[in-house]
TrEMBL record:
Residues 124-142 have a biased composition (Low complexity). This is Galactose-1-phosphate uridylyltransferase. Belongs to the galactose-1-phosphate uridylyltransferase type 1 family. GO terms for biological process: galactose catabolic process via UDP-galactose, Leloir pathway. It is an enzyme of class 2 (transferase). The active site is at 227 (tele-ump-histidine intermediate). Keywords: Carbohydrate metabolism, Galactose metabolism, Metal-binding, Nucleotidyltransferase, Transferase, Zinc. NCBIfam families: galT_1. GO terms for molecular function: UDP-glucose:hexose-1-phosphate uridylyltransferase activity; zinc ion binding. It comes from Microbacterium allomyrinae. InterPro entries: GalP_UDPtransf1, GalP_UDPtransf1_His-AS, GalP_Utransf_C, GalP_Utransf_N, HIT-like_sf. Its EC number is 2.7.7.12. It catalyses: alpha-D-galactose 1-phosphate + UDP-alpha-D-glucose = alpha-D-glucose 1-phosphate + UDP-alpha-D-galactose. Gene3D superfamilies: HIT-like.
């Protein structure tokens, strides 16, 4: 990706789908910052320089292989220093002011930047945020060679946690979530997800890209600012590894058959021309919703303008329906599962898995012995009951509010 050197306000404009304009620049320590302007934005083309005097970026974390599960665990001690529930006047995701030296120099519609204390990447703090190819890795960086290297046996195996972690700011407002956006702004975020998925998938060593939103203190959110994140992993995640095994067992048309099965049943919540939302047959969580595109797409970068256009209001309706279940906002994790970069592209379909531990107005489901220790789940709410409640809640959202 061509981006200007850090310290300059000049940004090269690129027009994306739906009239969204992308402007890439750099923060004072070299991290990439990308503005995504709404179509018809009132913002001008200029962006302020990030004039902060920042400490050097932390060294890239190291990941260790758990031989009992085969999973890789990234140990990122720098994350201990991240912001924790700051007051609104010190919001690190708001536009900078003289009294708030935040991460984003200018007023924005949507902004994406590299996390200051990432779980994955960069390969070298002095490399201006770029992850070098494996053959060009500097001394001290021991990146995974390939997927076979990651699967190799042995005790005490470590690798450098190359990759990328990005923050996606949905709005300059201090509080909110994706569900509080306008349809136009939601469409801009979706365009940003597609753009970043393509860019991160092209980085050397990246095997999977994962956009997600954590919402609510009960989930562990430390910033109330409306935002999500994107992780670019140097391996295929355990969840997706299990999914690939399921596809091998069930057949390459698994997602097509799941969609047909669910659309014929009683757990559908919301459907459109291109997308269907439903409570899955074997839902684990009190609130669990899957959202699938009707045709096979491996990730956001493969969706069409028409699919993105419909997703914006449909997803907003779904999220506002979840919030209509109770008198207070519901905590959730909105996880957009995408196919790995180099495997399963023809069989793993882009899909949302939205989960919440909220099982009543004043009760949460906590993972205790069976679930947390053994991975053996016990559902508290029949999926058909949950779907009926969610359908009613979604139907209560006035069309004119979208």
């Amino acid at each position: 990706m061509n981006t200007p050197e850090f310290g300059t306000p000049h940004t090269e404009a690129q027009t994306l789908g739906a009239g969204v304009v992308k402007r890439a620049t750099r923060l004072a320590d070299g991290r990439e910052l990308i503005y995504f302007d709404d179509p018809g934005t009132t913002l001008g083309p200029d962006r302020a320089i990030d004039a902060r005097d920042l400490a050097p970026r932390p060294e890239t974390a190291t990941m260790r292989r758990d031989v009992l599960s085969g999973d890789w665990v990234s140990v990122a001690a720098a994350r201990q220093n991240r912001a924790f529930l700051p007051p609104a006047e010190l919001d690190p995701l708001a536009p900078q002011t003289p009294s708030n030296p935040s991460e984003i120099p200018s007023l924005y519609d949507v902004a994406v930047f590299e996390n200051k204390s990432p779980s994955f990447g960069p390969a070298l703090a002095a490399a201006h945020g770029a992850t070098p190819a494996h053959g060009d890795a500097p001394a001290g960086v021991d990146a995974p060679r390939d997927l076979d290297d990651l699967d190799a046996p042995g005790l005490g195996r470590t690798r450098t946690s190359v990759g990328r972690c990005e923050v996606v700011c949905f709005s300059p407002e201090h509080a909110g979530s994706f569900g509080s956006l306008t349809p136009t702004r939601a469409r801009t975020v979706i365009e940003a997800w597609a753009d970043r998925t393509a860019a991160l998938s092209a980085l050397p060593g990246v095997e999977q890209v994962f956009p997600f939103e954590n919402r609510g203190e009960a989930i562990g959110v430390t910033l109330p600012h409306p935002h999500g994140q994107i992780y670019a992993y140097p391996y295929i995640t355990p969840r997706t590894t299990g999914l690939l095994a399921s596809i091998d067992r069930e057949g390459p048309d698994l997602f097509e058959r799941i969609l047909e099965f669910e659309r014929a049943g009683e757990r559908v919540i919301l459907t459109g021309e291109h997308w269907t939302a439903f409570v899955p047959f074997a839902a684990r969580w009190p609130i669990e919703i899957h959202l699938l595109p009707h045709r096979h797409v491996a990730d956001f970068s493969e969706t069409t303008d028409a699919e993105r256009d419909e997703l914006a209001p449909l997803y907003l309706r779904l999220l506002r329906g979840v919030d209509a279940l109770y008198d207070t906002p519901t905590p959730y994790i909105a996880a957009w599962h995408q196919a790995p970069v180099n495997r399963g592209r023809a069989t793993v379909r882009l899909h949302l898995q939205l989960t919440s531990p909220r099982r009543a107005a004043d009760k949460l489901k906590f993972l205790a012995g069976s679930e947390a220790a053994m991975g053996a789940w016990i559902g508290d709410v029949p999926p058909e009951t949950a779907a009926a409640r969610l359908r009613e809640a979604v139907a209560s959202i006035p069309e004119e509010t979208l």
